[in-house]
Amino acid sequence: RRYCNNYYYYYYCVVCPVACQANLNINREGGSRTRTRELDPNPEPHNNNAATNRDSNRRHKTIKKMVQITNRHTHGTGRHGTPSTGLPSTSRANTRSPDRKGDAGPSSLKGYFQKGKSHFLVLIVGMLLGYILLPLFVVEVADMDGVLKSIPDARMYSNNAATRSKGSSVASAEDNNPYRVADSESYQYLRPKEQETQPRALEREPEATAEDAAKDVAALTESEKRLIVDHGVLARQSMPTRTTPYVMKTTILPDHLRKKILITGGAGFVGSHLTDKLMMEGHEVIVVDNFFTGQKKNVAHWLHHPNFNLVVHDVTEPIQLEVDQIYHLACPASPPHYQYNPVKTIKTSTMGTLNMLGLAKRVRARMLLTSTSEIYGDPTVHPQPESYWGNVNTIGPRSCYDEGKRVAETMMYSYKNQNGVEIRVARIFNTFGPRMHPNDGRVVSNFIIQALQNKSITIYG
User: Fold this and answer.
1) What is the value of pTM for the model shown?
2) pLDDT digits over 229-254, tens only?
3) Residue 129, Cβ neighbours under 10 Å: how many?
4) What does the buried/exposed string (b/e) look like for 309-342 if buried means 16 or more CB atoms within 10 Å of the residue's CB?
5) What does the alpha-carbon distance between residue 164 and residue 175 come to, in Å, rounded to a whole number?
6) CA-CA-CA-CA torsion for 437, 438, 441, 442, nearest 10 degrees?
7) How do beta strands 308-312 and 7-9 pair?
């Protein structure tokens, strides 16, 4: 039962809230205070007296309007199977009778296509304009002859500068080029299609003989011969630079002996010397460095070599490579450098080591971690054996580097015991030599810098 301004009606579930609202509006206009017990589409009028008949007729009209609205929204059958009355709808949106042939309700398939007919027509017209009429209009209006004339023809690939200038309206600016320009005779991909008798993939090159090789060498210009010689020389040695003013020869290894080696922090002091060692042995070296303390000039003498690759990357982010060995040296080592950003130092030692261990696990590579003597902290035993656990202050100024390396060693052995990763750990003490940063801040480098600058040497301790 539903209450509407002191009027309540009993009705079946076929009456929706929309019908109830319509009934409320009708009752407000009519002012009737009658009560109906059920919704009968064709009720029989009472003939007791004129007043009763008037109220009954008004009630009948109200019920008919409610049933019409209900039929319009339920489309024939109520929620509990109540049959529809089939009364015509008075709404503007649906003035046609549902029983008429060809009529479709708003939710039927035919009605859907009737509503989308205009949109489909617009789509067809747009496709017609875009794919047929517009290209025809462009071809008719545009100056296609001028466009085709501006395209260089095959004469641009001739060796003769005069012929090249005749073949195009724009003369070539490289007429003084000492190297030969490729033509259709020497380069098969410049041949016109009518000259091809079989697919290029099926063409067989004639077997090269000693005479052909001699002819090819004789046909080369002096510049080309010098370029070939220089390329062969540079592929077997380093390039002298200001930082490395000498030449290092490289060994040529067969493929089954040559290894792909990744060095993190390879542009630093220790990493650059390790790069030199591995390059001279003939291996392929990939240096990964973000140049926080490393310098590009430390490895500039290998940039031309085909076995060397330099990747600017931060080891705190994962990297996907295919390598055989990993040397993990990435981390600032001097106190002024690792104390400049303690959080970054901890992340490099922990997250960087974790990323490299994940890479070593995936590609089954051997990994070396360069640890430090700082893991012993302020030692009470001199010299320190590897069995000594150290005396470290976890909240001191050096703790970001000390504890980071200690955690890195722990992760190395955890991956070894749990995942079978082949690992090595090297605890490096104070080191100095060429390419060392002048502001390294450690004792030996400070002695050298102060002596070179004719200053008093500071003795620590």
Assistant:
1) 0.55
2) 778 888 889 999 999 999 999 999 99
3) 11
4) bbeebbbbeebebebebbbbbbbbbbeebbeeee
5) 9
6) 80
7) unpaired
